[in-house]
Amino acid sequence: MKKFDSKAKPAAQVVGIDDISVYVPRLYLPLVGEFSRQRGIDPGKLLKGIGIEKMAVADAHEDAATMAANALLDLMRRSGLRPEDIDKIYVGTESAPDEAKALGTYVIGMMEQVYGKGSFHECETVEFKAACIGTTFALESLCYWAAFQDRMEDGGAEGDLEREKAGVVIASDIARYPLSSSGEYTQGAGSVALLVKRDPRLLAIEQVWGAFSRDENDFFRPMGCATAVVNGKHSNQCYLDAVQGAFDSFAARAGRRGIIRPPEGCCVTDFMDRILFHIPYPRMIEYASAAIFRHDWKRSSKRKKSRQQEAVEAEIGDEPLAEEFRDTGELQAAEADYSRRFSRSRTFLQAFEAKVKDTALLSRQVGNIYTGSIYLGLASLMEAQKLMPGERLGFAAYGSGCSALFFSATVQPRAEEVAGLGLLQRLQERREVSLADYERLHEGKAERSILKPAGEFILAGVDGQGYRHYEYIE
Ligand code: CAA
Predict the structure, then answer these.
(1) If you measure from the C-alpha of residue 286 to the centroid of ligand 1, how many angstroms do you get, rounded to a whole number?
(2) What is the pLDDT along the chain (474 residues), one digit of tens a residue?
(3) Candidates 133, 180, 182: which one to mutate for ligand 1, based on the most atoms within 8 Å of Cβ?
């Protein structure tokens, strides 16, 4: 048993994501057809302008807790984990069914129906609320914990370290906006569970976290409201500002730590093989990557122009300069026009295709799952078989309100061991729901489930005090 030595410099540990499991409800609503006709929306807008084909719909017996438990059970079975292997379950959610009780306690209650009463009694669970970035803050916390776990040992028996414990981060959310609102077609539902430990098989997190926070009213849900208040266009801008702020913070910190130090004429994003963004709707990652690439290519060119900056300028001309315009109105118009041309430039589109596009594969079929959507992006890369050992991934997480975190991770040599989530197949086996059934579910007016539950946790009922009862159905 190692003893804590306050003077010793901590040894760097490789920590990160060992495995991942995704749960998506078995119902979906196609956005083109009855929905687009009834709402009077051009299908091209949904498919191209927003980027969504289908949205996952939670059945009457599902909520954020059942989805979290279903994802965790699958993760435990995939990874051969026993309850005593898990020290912490941190849950990121913004659609928890209780204002005080941690969602993870309901999850533990459900897991104990499968693994036995008391089997999780030594496991800590806490909920992280920070809109869509809650899960990423939970992941950051667990990574620090995993890195220093042995230094925090409280004197267990000799040999405890061989039975090192793991942590689990669960994202679970139902994204819900008012019917017929402009947020409606960006809804979705689902849960992602991540196994966090030392010597992970999938991704080693480099432990450089670039951060940005600012008080904003872009998206929030006051107490008692079932749907969010959204200032849509403003929320897009807050997302872009925050992600750019976190990227700059990451670039500075990664440079100081010697993890990414681009030589003159090179950019930070040159050192990333893929970039995963929070995906409120797939089109947003086009806006975000255009903003980040443009900023990075231009910024890195202060002394020597980057190859990409030269290519963009050859295609669409120089960036607009403030001194060339008479007033801010003219400058803003020129800036908007340049942004539009940048996002259509060959140089940008090649970078987007190579590094970002495949991360939205699943989101197009599922919609926004809030806190888990960036990790649905990771699952998308796994489904598309796009992860190669040694590659570096950049992650840009965003939460309304607002905060952003940018961090990086490298694909591990054993990543192939955790491939094969079979999600695309599972999504194909879902059942289409009619617009009327979807609306009843949305408004909480469905009297019974549309699909008969099987092999999953369900919400069995809510008692007179508001306590929720869950069951595992074989
Ligand atoms: N064919 C192709 N494209 C079309 C089209 C057609 N027939 N009609 C319109 N479009 C394009 C538009 O031109 C536009 O693209 P450009 O930006 O390139 O011009 C795109 O479709 C979107 O259309 P609108 O500008 O009309 O946008 P909208 O009114 O549908 O609103 C939204 C979009 C603001 C995202 C809205 O859906 C919304 O409020 N969603 C919820 C909030 C949200 O997701 N915000 C994202 C940032 S906040 C965040 O990330 C946290 C989170 O998870 C909520």
Answers:
(1) 12
(2) 444 444 555 556 899 999 999 999 999 999 999 999 999 999 999 999 999 999 999 999 999 999 999 999 999 999 999 999 999 999 999 999 999 999 999 999 999 999 999 999 999 999 999 999 999 999 999 999 999 876 555 544 454 544 689 999 999 999 999 999 999 999 999 999 999 999 999 999 999 999 999 999 999 999 999 899 999 999 999 999 999 999 999 999 999 999 999 999 999 999 999 999 999 999 999 999 999 999 999 987 677 899 999 999 999 999 999 888 889 999 999 999 999 999 999 999 999 999 999 999 999 999 999 999 999 999 999 999 889 999 999 999 999 999 999 999 999 999 999 988 999 999 999 999 999 999 999 999 998 999 999 999 999 999 999 999 999 999
(3) 182
End-to-end C-alpha distance for the chain, whole angstroms: 42
Q: Using CA positions, which residue lies closest to atom 38 of ligand 1?
A: 183
Which residues contact ligand 1 via a Cβ below 6 A?
A: 42, 44-45, 48-50, 132, 182-183, 186, 218-219, 230, 232-233, 235-236, 239, 278, 280-281, 284, 368, 370, 398, 400
Which ligand 1 atom is the nearest neighbour of the CA of 228? Answer: 54
Tokens 């699952």 belong to residue: 379
Q: Are the beta carbons of 24 and 190 closer than 8 angstroms?
A: yes
Nearest CA to ligand 1 atom 14: 49
Q: Which two tokens stand for residue 82?
A: 């026993």
**Which tokens sit at 158?**
């000799």
Cα 397 from chain centroid (whole Å): 7
**Centroid of ligand 1 to alpha carbon of 285 (angstroms):** 12
Q: From 45, 230, 341, 398, give the residue whose CB has the most ligand 1 atoms within 8 Å, as the site to mutate.
A: 45
Which residue has a Cα nearest atom 2 of ligand 1? Answer: 45
Ligand 1 center from residue 45 Cα (angstroms): 8
In angstroms, the CA 439 to CA 46 distance is 19
CA of 50 to the centre of ligand 1 (A): 5
Retrieve residue 382's tokens.
């796994």
- Assess whether the previous peptide bond of 402 is cis (omega < 30° from 0): yes
The 3-state DSSP class for residue 387 equals: coil
Phi, then psi, of 148 in degrees rounded to 5: -115, 20
Give the C-alpha distances (Å, rounded to integers) separating 173 from 57, 68, 300, 369.
11, 9, 38, 6
pTM to 2 decimal places: 0.95
CB contact set of 391 (below 8 Å; sequence gap of 6+): 273, 274, 410, 411
Residue with CA nearest ligand 1 atom 49: 280
* Residue 47 Cα: closest atom of ligand 1: 2
